[in-house]
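Shipment paperwork, digital attachment
Item: protein structure file
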Amino acid sequence: MNIRQVRNKIRSVSNVRKITKAMQMVSAIKMKKAQTAAIEGQPYRSDLERIIKRVVVNLDPAFSPLLSRNPAAKGRELVIFISSNKGLCGSFNFNLFRYAIKNINFDKTDFITVGKKGASLVGKMESRIIADFSTNNAIDSVSAIFQTALIAFLDGKYQQVKLIYNRFINTLRHEPTETVLLPVNLAPTEEEKKEQQTNNEYIIEPAPETIIDSLLRSLVEEKIRGAIIDSEASEHSARMIAMKNATDNAGDVIYNLTLLRNKIRQEKITYELLDMITAKESVES
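Attachment content:
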């Protein structure tokens, strides 16, 4: 490799480093916004679920079709699969796909996909996609996603509706998560049972039987919205970290190439000096 080739490589790697640095800064801004939305929405969703559990603790499941499986349902399941539209986000999609392949029976599962990468995986696994919301803004499509899944469940096409996505933990951590949306499972935990025993029951007007179905619909829709927000926060965090690593690696490559360029230049100067000395000695002799 001559010095001109090394200079061209340094120039090309420097251009790539500028691009990854810009992508890192853009992802950092988007990450901050998405993380704020994810963190601020968690208390609302958890409190909403806790309150609904206290309301329906003594209710008959017959008051809402969302609380039990449809007897006419077939043996298939429906999965709302949330991934990303773009790559360059590290292990974000890889870990999610590995989890899905390990835990989903693709022969007995249909999909609602949110994200082109997930839709591509489902297509390769030869499963059926009943709806794809990858081209639209995912947050704006929450109601449509919910209605599509709800109608299919109430029509008895599926025994369960599940949600698979990357749950946001912090900037450095996200994990694939599976949640059963329908039928709604509101069995209280041990801690919630103790809380229900120590606190007084809610006084509700109209009766809980009247409002339970609309409350459950709101809860399921909010879970889908929360999953999309969590997935976006995880995606931007993963992409920011991936671009930072790429920028750092490009800097290391530039440093090593610079050392190589200096070494080649020094060797060239040394050879030229040797040639001059040899010629001088030849003339003198």
